[in-house]
Write a structure and sequence with these properties.
The structure is a homodimer. The first copy, chain A, is mostly helical. Chain A is 61% helix and 7% strand. In chain A, helix 1 packs antiparallel against helix 2, helix 3 crosses helix 6 and helix 4 packs across helix 5. The model of chain A has no long low-confidence stretch (mean pLDDT 93). Chain A binds a DNA duplex through helix 5.
DNA sequence: CTAATATCAGCGCTACTGAGATCT
DNA sequence: CAGATCTCAGTATCGCTGATATTA
């Protein structure tokens, strides 16, 4: 078994032998795996017309909230780590594609509420199933036991990195 | 322990209970960890003046080759998955920063060779040490045994995804 | 002649910043 | 009045495409 990182580490061992490359064996692979998975999942989303990278994130964020699949732009922006200006652009795109719509917020006349249209609900539900299927295919070589092990360690790592889930971003949903 | 993905999965269990979210426990965490690590490492690179995302990749690619730290733009572009046009832009930036320089390729008068300047060698060597230190800090909570386990599983995963290391990209080096 | 190398100009995409209008 | 919400215009980053000149 010789992946991309194996070669990297070999290079550094030759060029900078005093460098401790043990962390690279983990971090390098994590980054590499993340890139490949993200790329493959983006391709799946694109098959559902979601060729703009962050669009699926917005749709799934709304979908995950449950009916009536509605949220303010500000809170959506926080959820996907975007400025409100950036969210305006994204929502314009999604609204033009008829996947979301805006309506005035009845409880705050400064604001608006964004909600999934019927089309948007259909697209996100279909896309999500395809995404999950692709995820399953991507990690198909890992046994149930290995999955539990790696998920546990990554969870520990995320927690140690301060990840609490207040801000839910990307990562398919 | 409750990270970002824990909340995600709980949302989907409520909204789409028939969906098998087990792959998301792994893939979601891999993506999330990758994002966080990349972000933190980018910040370290920025401290060395490498605020443009792909710049460190080019410098490390040259550094890893050993003296005289030299390569053609085409091969560099392949190594970091970039078009030659994109590489021209990057090299212009790096050359303006006096980190690399170009000279005519003596063996092919169509081409040029890019090499690390003395400044470039200093910067990449210093940045690399800082990157490795940051990596160590980031995964500090994992024991040696856990690191070996996760590195092994990720290597298996990368191999199954077709990663062979012909094209060495990003991922710190 | 075909293919490869590097560059350049023009384009597209995406997000950010800061200003402005509205409202709490 | 301070602060929040959203939008908009302008700007920046970054890579790609396709054309070009040169050489293998």
């Amino acid at each position: 078994m010789s992946d991309y990182v194996t070669g990297l580490v070999a290079d550094w061992a030759r060029e900078r032998p005093e460098l401790d490359t043990s962390s690279m064996e983990v971090v390098g692979r994590l980054l590499r795996v993340g890139q490949i998975l993200q790329h493959r999942l983006d391709a799946v989303a694109a098959r559902y017309g979601l060729s703009h990278k962050g669009d699926l994130d917005v749709l799934t964020a709304l979908r995950r909230m449950g009916p009536p699949y509605e949220q303010t732009p500000s809170r959506l922006a926080k959820g996907v780590q975007l400025t409100t200006g950036g969210m305006t652009n994204r929502l314009d795109r999604l609204e033009a594609a008829n996947l979301v719509a805006r309506r005035p917020d009845p409880s705050d006349r400064r604001g608006v509420l964004v909600y999934l249209t019927d089309d948007g609900q259909r697209v996100v539900d279909n896309a999500l199933e395809a995404i999950v299927a692709e995820q399953e295919a991507l990690i198909g070589t890992l046994s149930a036991r290995e999955r539990a092990t790696i998920a546990g360690m990554l969870g520990q790592l995320l927690t140690s990195l301060g990840d609490r889930g207040e801000e839910r971003v990307g990562a398919v949903g």
